């Protein structure tokens, strides 16, 4: 392998903590080949979205389909509106919020050998053809999962109705050698292209051979080493206080044809990584803005400069090379995503030569300044508020500093902003969590909702982080400690999955395992707003998350999950468990019964004893009702209560519902008062 490529490969293994060493040379070679396949998949899928796999090693594992029964395919990705999807639910979610959708199918074959082989290309092509036909060859589970998504896309009426055009198909055959140029290979490619075209499913098909030099170039692109020179028309400086850490700020006008130098990669495709920091990506194409912009290009190109708000760019450096020539280093388009996409879509329109636009450019390396610019420039239009979540004080002033200062065996970093820790070679990708990880794990671990944790973070924030008074997550009166604990639980499970210490069959239910492990501490958690109590509780959790203690408790957690699943399937379908609220509640009760021995808690505010139990049954004697709370294991511990002790809707008191209550003695028996549901 070429030395520079090998250096990039080794860096990838280090940052993702992939160990390919083995006492058997044959096994080590197999591990190395498997790691190379993952490396290639990482590079090719990251080109458009460089941070797509940060804190999401599971997604990287998902797109890696190589192994037994892989039909000659090592990587598969299905993109819906430029987003890699991993299940039918994600396709449905994107379809619902979009007026139109675009679909891309990406297939990759990777070989560490320094030469390209026509036989391997043919095998690869056959595997792709089989994927779009009947199941003629044995397929592994990963490929079957992708087949289900593909079948849904081509059969669902809503998806088909919203398809802007037929899906695109991309095949990449990667080797560590030099791309062949002989007629035999080009003939093979043309033949494969014709065979795939006959399937009739695709708007366009592209087959690329990628050798070592091109792969190295892609690796460098991922490091954001990108600069562009472009001709401008007029330029003037913007007055900015030097104290704001803004190196330079300018506004200039330019021809759209010149701006395309920023938007287009060498192969003519859109440089999507330009929009990493642009929050309007969250909106998809749910509005008609793009069509209006493109209509102006087609009908009134001379009016574009007056009708359009322009584009805002943040970059690391800007230089005016000469009067009408500028150089921009590492640009990010923070406002103007839709304008940029419209210009790119109309790049072949003859009118593009008559289009001029306004560009505002800010040169800074200060993340805070960049965040303010993102927020300010996008607030002028309707943008989803959750896109700004990490710019709020709780994240910036509390969470991030807490993660940086917390001393533990494992160092974990909270990446509020994409690429925040890219320049630190000592920080591994496996040590980084982001908003998605913290949101999904917190919902599972502290809000007891593992059935919701697979949902996209934008939807979760919409559900759990609404108005200030109704927020359940990322509240200013929360301690940062439980969020760190969520990150640590996530880290330990990811580490053990990566090291094959946990059977892969449990990965689908990892959010449920997170919850069980939190309960394994043996105590009910205090309210999230009781900072001192919560910190004491989290201290205990951190102790059981140390390697040795984790190893002792993990088998118990897995056993609780298995027992609960067995209970469930005795009376219900085994399908859909992951998304079932009822299963989560059953799991919660089973885990609590096993791990939490004492059901009594002390209320810190008034020293009253607060008991916890589950509803045994409710009995109606019209027009009155009464019920019993199961409290402990013996019948005599069941506690009587009625409407005098519970002021809520009795319909919520179904059997096994968890409640907390106080006890009051009357004659020789106790009855429950101040009965409240525990969410």
From TrEMBL:
Pfam families: AIPR (PF10592). Residues 275-560 form the Abortive phage infection protein C-terminal domain. It comes from Floridaenema evergladense BLCC-F167. This is AIPR family protein.
